[in-house]
Amino acid sequence: MGLPLHPHVMNIGYVGLGKMGSGIVRSLLRTGHRVVVYNRSREKAEALAKDGARIANSPAEAASDSDVVMTMLSDDQAVEQVVLGDKGIASGLRRAAVHISNSTISTALARRLAQEHQQRGQGYLSAPVFGRPEAAEAKKLVVTVAGEESLIERFRPVLDAIGRKTIAAGSEPWQANAVKLCGNFMIASMMETFGETYAVIRKSGMQPQMFLDVMNELFNSPVYANYGGIIANERYEPAAFTLKLGLKDIRLVLAAAEETATPMPFASVLRDNFLSALADNQEDLDWSSVAKIPARNAGLK
User: Fold this and answer.
1) What are the domain boundaries of the chain?
2) Which of 63, 70, 145, 215 would staple 93 via disulfide (CB 3.0–4.6 Å)?
3) Helix, strand or coil for residue 294?
4) What is the pTM of this model?
C-alpha cells in the first residue's frame, strides 16, 4: 500500500519547466500533489515524468483537468502567449479553477490577466517567488501572493508546498508583482554595492572574501552571502538568472514606479549599468555580473 494522500492534495497543471519551474514541480510532487506539466521543449517535461508528473501536449491541456494551473515563464510576452494565445491556459481552464502565476511580470500584465480570467469565470493569483533554482528544489523559496483572500486561503497548501514562507501582499494580484519587482531592485542594488566596495578593497591591497566575511557577520543574510561570494570569486557562469532578465526586471520596476509617480533615481543608475554590461556581451552571464561595471570603471581587470 502507498502512503495515504495528504488531505489538501490537488490536481495541478504546471507550465514552464526551466530551472525554477522544474524545482517547484518536484517540490509539489514530493508533497503528494498530482501534477501535469507542459513545456515548449518536451525533454524538460520528460525529465519530470520520471518523478511522477504527467505530460500535457499544450498549455490548455495542462489546465483542463486541474484545480489550479501554475506558470513560471521568462517575461510578459511568454506569459501572454501561454495564457491567452492559441491552445492557451485561459481556453482550457474550467470555470472556478484558478491560474497562479509564479513569473516575474509587469504590474500591467498582472492586471490584464486578472481581468481576462474574471471574464471567463476563472480565478487568478499572482504568486512570484524569491530564491534561486537550488531554493526551488529544496522548498526554500519565499512566496509573495496577492489576490482574493478566499483564493489565497484555498491554495495556501499549494504555496506552502513550494516555499519556506508565504506572505500575502494584498487583495489585488498586481500588488504581489510590485513586491517582487521592488525586491529584485533591492537585490540588484546590493550587487552593485558589492561591485563598488570590492573595487575599493582590491585597490587598497585587500581581498574581497575578507570583506565579505565582515559583511556576513553584520548582515547574516543568505542573499548577501550567496551573491557576495559569486561576485568575490567572479563565478558568473553558469547563470542561474541571466543579466538580460535582470535588465528586464529593472525596466519593470521603473515602469511600476512611473505608474505610481514614484521617482527611483538609483534604479535608473542600475538600468544604465545593466545596459553597459549588455553592451559588453554579458547578457547570458549571471545578473550579478553587473558588478563587473564598477570594477572596470575603477581600472581593474
Assistant:
1) 11-171, 178-297
2) 63
3) helix
4) 0.95
